[in-house]
Amino acid sequence: MSLRWRISLYFAFLIIILFLSVFLIIREENIKNFKNLLEKEAKSAAKSLAIASKDFLLEERIPDLVKLCYEIKGKEEKGEIVYSFVVDHKNFIKGSFREDFIGKNIYEFGNVLKDTNLLYEDEIVFNRVVDIIYMNKIIGKAVIGVSSRNLNNSLKNMQKRMFLIFTILLFVGFLGVFSIGTYLAHPVSKIIKAIEKIGKGDFDIYIGLKRKDEIGKIAREIEKMSEDLRIAQKEILEKERMKRDIEIAKEIQKVLIPSQVPNIPEYEIEFFYKPAFFVSGDYIDVIKIPFDRIFIVLADVSGKGVGSSLLMGMIKMNTLSIVKGVTTPKSFLISLFNSLRDLIPEEMFITIAVCILERDGNLFFTSAGHFPPILYRKNKKIFEKIEINSLPLGFSFLNITDFADSLKEEKIEMERGDILMIYTDGLLEIENEYGENFGEERIKNIIFNSGNGVAEIKKRLIKEIEIFRGEKEIKDDISFLIISRK
After folding, report:
1. How confident is residue 130, by pLDDT bands cut at 50, 70 and 90?
2. Are 383 and 452 in contact (CB under 8 A)?
3. DSSP letter string, 3-16
4. How far apart are CA 146 and CA 84, in angstroms?
5. pLDDT tens digits for 183-236?
6. Are domains 3-153 and 257-485 of this chain identical in fold?
7. Annotated domain spans of the chain
8. Residue 144: what pLDDT?
9. CATH entry, 3-153, from 3.30.160.20, 3.40.50.300, 3.30.450.20, 3.30.1050.10
10. How far apart are alpha carbons 146 and 295 in whole angstroms?
11. Which pLDDT does position 249 carry in this prediction?
């Protein structure tokens, strides 16, 4: 059932209830008032008959009493006088509206010698009695009975008028409410259709209601909501597309990071790589190069996200093309700088740590703006930092000569059991819930207290990282390399 019909029927039901309530109240009030009027009329007529018949009753002037009773019956006003009697003190009828009742006992007609409402000839009669007094003595009674027929007729007429008024009001009200319902339902139906379209995923909605009331406001809010949903849907689709692209980039980047370290008899090497987001700007590689040497590189691209990961891929590709002809770490960085100088965006730079391991324990190391590695001398039980103050890749104001001049190369003789750890700043800057950084000292303690090689150091370091940060998110990529001479 439509809204307009529901509103109209609800209104009709309400009008009927209100009408019945008002009708019953008015009807009861009219009955009460008319009854009081007829009772007063009966009483007044009885008093008049008592006064007029007193002398006739004393003198036993029966014809005059009959005439008097007949005349007073004909003087009805609101109600019809059904009967009139004058009785003596012995309750015998001395005057009546009918001559054949004269001389009979009044009780033959019922108990009419008291004020009461009684049934007479199939109708309710208001019976009233007034004493006829002479010399302070009751010499008789005057009895008047007024019919309720006029009361019933009056009630019927009132009911007819009320029902006529009710029918007119109901009809006019129904038409008015139906019109109002139509006025309300038409825009509501447009709003419902718009909501149904939204439910089906169609956000191209225009309701077009110019009303300034609540319905117009609802329509405008739905139009605004549909526009917001359309934009949100577009953004979601775009995010889904980007997410798919990032997933693809993530899978591609996995290929750029070695899955395992080449078997190197003279050294133990372990690495750890954890992106902060889907993709990383860190680059780790361990590559065998000619003359039984091992080439190791750890790079950190500034920034995060897809841009950093793309630049990381470029480093990987250029590294593979350069590394086979490398003689020293410094020459590698100069070649890499020359390859990437025009490809690195202005706002980005790259820090790189590079080392070449020889079988006899000699390690050649250089850095382009990277964090200094930690070197643990096992026999001496001391830590050393290999600090090289050089510039990172990416500054456009540098030419190749300036960059080459900033590079320094260190030769490190690694004794058996010595441990070299190279890492990105993401490891040091891991935060816990109190805002504390993981820091260098924790790394040193783990290296110092681990006696079973680099695999144990890596395992303990990963465990300590997870315990330290708890539920705190990682803000930067974490990468490290651990190298130990057997």
Report:
1. very high
2. no
3. HHHHHHHHHHHHHH
4. 9
5. 666 777 777 788 888 887 787 887 777 777 777 888 888 888 888 888 888 888
6. no
7. 3-153, 257-485
8. 92
9. 3.30.450.20
10. 132
11. 67
Average pLDDT over residues 352-369: 94
Judge whether 146 and 45 are in contact, CB under 8 Å.
yes
Q: Is-contact 286 259, C-beta < 8 A?
A: no
Angle, alpha carbons 218-222-223 (nearest 5°): 120
Contacts 24+ apart (CB under 8 A), 333-338: 333/366, 333/368, 333/393, 333/403, 333/407, 334/400, 334/403, 334/404, 334/407, 336/393, 337/368, 337/393, 337/400, 337/403, 337/404, 338/400
pTM exceeds cut of 0.85: no
Answer for the pair 101, 86: CB distance below 8 angstroms, yes or no. Answer: no
140 Cα distance to chain centroid: 89
Question: 257-485: which CATH architecture?
Answer: 4-Layer Sandwich (3.60)
Amino acid at position 418, single letter = D
Most confident of 157-161, 256-260, 477-481: 477-481
Q: Are 427 and 442 in contact (CB under 8 A)?
A: no
